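User: Fold this; tokens only.

Assistant: Input:
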Amino acid sequence: MGLVTGTCFAEVGHRVICVDNDEAKVKTLQAGGIPIYEPGLEEMVKKNVDAGRLSFTSQHRRRGQKLGRHLHRRATPPQPDGSVDLSFIERVARDIASAMTEYKIIVDKSTVPVQTGDKVAETIKRYCKNKVEFDVVSKPGISAGRFCCGRPDEAGPDCHRRCAPSAPCRR
């Protein structure tokens, strides 16, 4: 789900719908509970939920069409042979593709192998029936006073400004 990151996006003004396939976690969040501890998180979540910028669901397809950005964070458990299981990431990329009707920024936030963003982009291109434009960016983390967002081309700074307009952009 990326609760901290989703909350930080809401805090800078974006409308964020955090999607998770763990229905119990979603119900806890919808009821005002916080399943993890992070200093100040509970207050920020409440403030942004009350402002209508942050919500929680387990139904990506229905809600995903309304977003301009998707936070894409999924587990990457190891396979028996030690390789990484990317099936969860591919499933979410397919869901995003099926819901896309206009330009989106897909934010890949996870500790994933190199070139996972390329796999996400290929999956979306393959399954998006509407053939709309999109960007996939890497979002390794948010920490106090810093927002990191990366793209492997010259459009990176523009994507960064769209995601975090008040954060300084450095190359």
